[in-house]
Amino acid sequence: MREWLHKWAFGAVALVALCVGVFLLERQRAGLEIIHDRVGTTPVTVTRAVEEGPVAVIVHGFAGSRQMMAAWSESFARAGYIAVAVDLEGHGRNPVPMSGDVTSLDGTTRILLEEIARVTDWAVSIPGAEARVVLIGHSMSSDLVVRAGIADARVEAIVGISVFSQAVTAEAPENLLIVNGAWEGALRAEAQRVMAELGAVEGETMGVPGEGFARRAVAVPRAEHVGILWAPEALREAVSWADASLGRDSDAPVARLGLGIVLVLAGAVMLAAPLARLLPAGETPEGLPRRVFWLLALGPAVAAPLLAMQVEIGVLPVLVADYLAVHLGLYGALMLAGAVIAGWRPERRGWVWGFALAACGIVVFGLLMDRYVASFVPHARRVPIVLAMVPGAVLAMWADAVLTRATATALWQRIVVRSAFLGSLAIAVALDFERLFFLVLIFPVIVLFYATFGMMGRWVGRRTGSTLAVGIGLGLLLGWALGVSFPMYVEAL
User: Distance between CA 31 and CA 29 in Å, rounded?
Assistant: First the structure.
């Protein structure tokens, strides 16, 4: 009876968190007109609360999407702007890969600037839109909006989030707000250097926005490179800067999505616990001897990058995806082979439960993620990429489950295994930094994966004791997450 009450009480808390989170997020959208459209092949989302107003073009960062910029779209829409958020080539729902030389201003940068210009032209043609533009860009796109703003006379204000741009000088652009997170040390140092050239410090405004040259750099407390996208202080600074630059005065509150997002994602993860109780109970598998555990945790982590470096495929239109698919497969295969030598025998039970875990993760967690946080639903050109990532991901996650006894081992052992996996990717980057640098950007995806889907897999593993169920379920989810989140890229179209 006590166990029954505990199970359903946990499920009730999960549902309450989920429902409250959805309510909070949907309430932020109340009164806004949100329309999804395309500018050529470029997906855009128009958010507005007024019939007429200036335009705010909002551009995500590397591996981002329109969904990640929702707080900015909603805040600017409530302030009387017609907000237009974009999925750049290679990102989100955009079916066209990035192309060109990523190291050259005449390569990828030029192509993306042309895309932003097309979207800006389209945005000011929207009925009711004024030919006055505010450009907002995060991380990679902070450089793009600076360059686009310098070249386009319609742009009256620029907001750069997590900024690094060699186009910023003591003279240009004219109206620039630099917003960094307080925990972005290197980017803050760059902003402080830029302000020092003008004889100013962080937090001080040089000039008067809208009356010639003006610049300001601020650091948002308790914010880092991603969290800054939902920080109310960053949003308030941006709207105030845009209003001052365009001679406007809006007093609408900015969007507060952080709590709603946390509740929605936490509720979706927690819901897996009572659902896992519906699966047949099984015994926790026996662990491998301590010496074998250490050998398998560390050995494949070192060997996989050394072997994978010898393989070059170059088929998938995603940065470092071919290498990552090979790396995952070798890492998992080496670990599983070592476990077999040590006496472990693969099980046959659990594959159905693994597919159920993956379905739950994609349908419940994934669709909520796609609506409120970041793009998670693949377009047709991403499906082959997902399918190519899945085999290696399943092997890697099955190996993880074998070493962690279907995730039932002590916490320190799970930390060792997962840290070794990340360390394996770090070794690959160190061996060929120029070719595999973008693997570094996968690290946050892996950490988020373990914190969300990994917890869902843990509940399934503790209930069923099936390493196969955990391996298939988490492998499918990891392959999906990597396939939909990393930018598509080809050197030339």
Answer: 6
